[in-house]
Design a protein that fits this description.
Shape: globular
Family: Belongs to the bacterial solute-binding protein SsuA/TauA family.
Organism: Sulfuriferula plumbiphila
Subcellular location: Periplasm
CATH superfamily of the largest domain: Periplasmic binding protein-like II
CATH class of the largest domain: Alpha Beta
Strand order of the largest sheet: 2-1-3-10-4
GO cellular component, one term: periplasmic space
Largest sheet: 5 strands, mixed
Structural class: alpha/beta
Helix content: 40-55%
Number of strands: 12
Radius of gyration: 22 Å
Oligomer: single chain
Keywords: Signal
Distance between the termini: 84 Å
Order of helices and strands: HEHEHEHEEHEHEHEHEEHHHHEHHE
């Protein structure tokens, strides 16, 4: 009897040893990743840094390959992730929430935060250059009544416009669904009264460091409506390669700290310029570090890097799920079980010995922008 028990124990030990060895071998295997990001969105600037500096090579297994695919807005990346063409995606808050609700197509989780601002990134309304010089955001909102406004449908900017209309009771003459490129062209042609969009395109068309065809008028700060960005991952990928999930978030942590460091601000702007068309270094710099005037809803804080989902972010996400459900954009009024999973991000931060949030960016006067 004792002999049989001893044999069984040895067999079990051998199985466990083989499993551990197999896991270790697999964990060391190189991986091919396709990452969707938005170089035309400040929530993806950390991804732009990772790409430009090759930071992923420090953390992923030797021989790994990473392909970065740029998208003009988050909905494009969501579709690619749902189709299994991208494993990792950098998204603004609205498309991030939408992505988690497509459970019948693919299970997508949000695993880390890439930025949290007082409505200075995506919740931005700009008016045509010859519009009145408003003394306050509230005055600008009243002017929008009866005007023609454009925004990319399905974006965080689209959600902000809907919120402003709901709260202020204004009635625009028309709301046009236009991409960043199209709405910029139409502002140049003076076919629009206002646009709702995100950085750095706002900096590009604006009158502070840009073309001067539009003026900042309203931000989410006016309405107490922050905006944020997220890293999304396919759940099947996370289960197959949990080691790569950790490796990528280690890379992201380093990139966010790079973006926060004032010594790197011009370098970050140069990196963004190198991965976009029409965005200059001053535009890229202002989009992440410059201060929007107070009369247009500017905040002393431009951006913050919580990295994980603290109470502010979770509360914001609760509001987004409810808003999108109320407006029949998604079919659930709360996050599906398990889709908001920052457990690995918290582990990475703890192992690195860093305090959270990682830091914040004090908005800088436009006079400090690089020339």
């Amino acid at each position: 009897m004792k002999s049989h028990a001893k044999t069984a124990m040895l067999a079990l030990a051998l199985i466990i040893f083989n499993v551990v060895q197999l896991t270790a071998v697999r964990a060391a295997e190189p991986v091919k990743l396709t990452v969707g990001y938005q170089p035309y969105d400040t929530v993806s600037y950390s991804a732009a840094v990772i790409r430009a500096l090759g930071l992923w090579k420090k953390y992923l297994p030797p021989g790994s390959e990473v392909q970065f695919q740029g998208g003009l807005q988050g909905s494009i990346i969501v579709n690619q992730m749902l189709a299994g063409k991208q494993q990792i995606g950098y998204l603004g808050d609205m498309p991030a929430v939408v992505a988690t609700t497509k459970q019948d197509v693919a299970k997508i989780k949000l695993v880390a935060n890439t930025g949290f601002s007082p409505g200075q990134r995506c919740n931005v309304i700009m008016v045509r250059a010859d519009a009145p010089n408003f003394k306050s955001p509230e005055e600008a909102v009243k002017w929008l009544n009866g005007k023609t406004i454009a925004t990319p449908k399905g974006s965080c900017a689209d959600r902000f416009l809907g919120y402003v209309i709901e709260k202020s009771k204004i009635k625009p003459a028309a709301i046009m669904n236009q991409s960043l490129e199209v709405l910029s062209t139409n502002m140049r042609a003076k076919k629009l009264d206002a646009v709702v969009l995100w950085e750095p395109t706002a900096s590009r068309i604006g009158n502070l460091v840009g073309e001067g065809i539009a003026k900042y008028a309203v931000t989410g700060n006016t309405f107490g409506m922050p905006d944020s960005g997220f890293i999304a991952m396919r759940e099947d990928f996370m289960k197959q390669r949990p080691d790569i999930v950790e490796d990528w978030l280690k890379t992201e942590l380093e990139a966010q700290r790079f973006v926060l460091n004032p010594k790197n601000w011009v370098k970050v702007a140069e990196i963004v310029k190198g991965q976009t068309n029409g965005i200059t270094v001053p535009m890229a710099w202002f989009s992440e570090y410059g201060r929007i005037p107070a009369y247009a809803g500017g905040s002393p804080i431009k951006d913050e890097k919580p990295f994980v989902f603290d109470d502010r972010i979770r509360n914001q996400l609760v509001g987004i799920y409810q808003f999108l459900y109320k407006n029949k954009i998604i079919n659930v009024d709360q996050a599906p079980a398990g889709v908001l999973d920052d457990s690995v991000a918290r582990k990475i931060a703890k192992d690195a010995g860093v305090r959270l949030p990682l830091g914040s960016i004090q908005a800088q006067d436009v006079s400090k922008a690089p020339k």
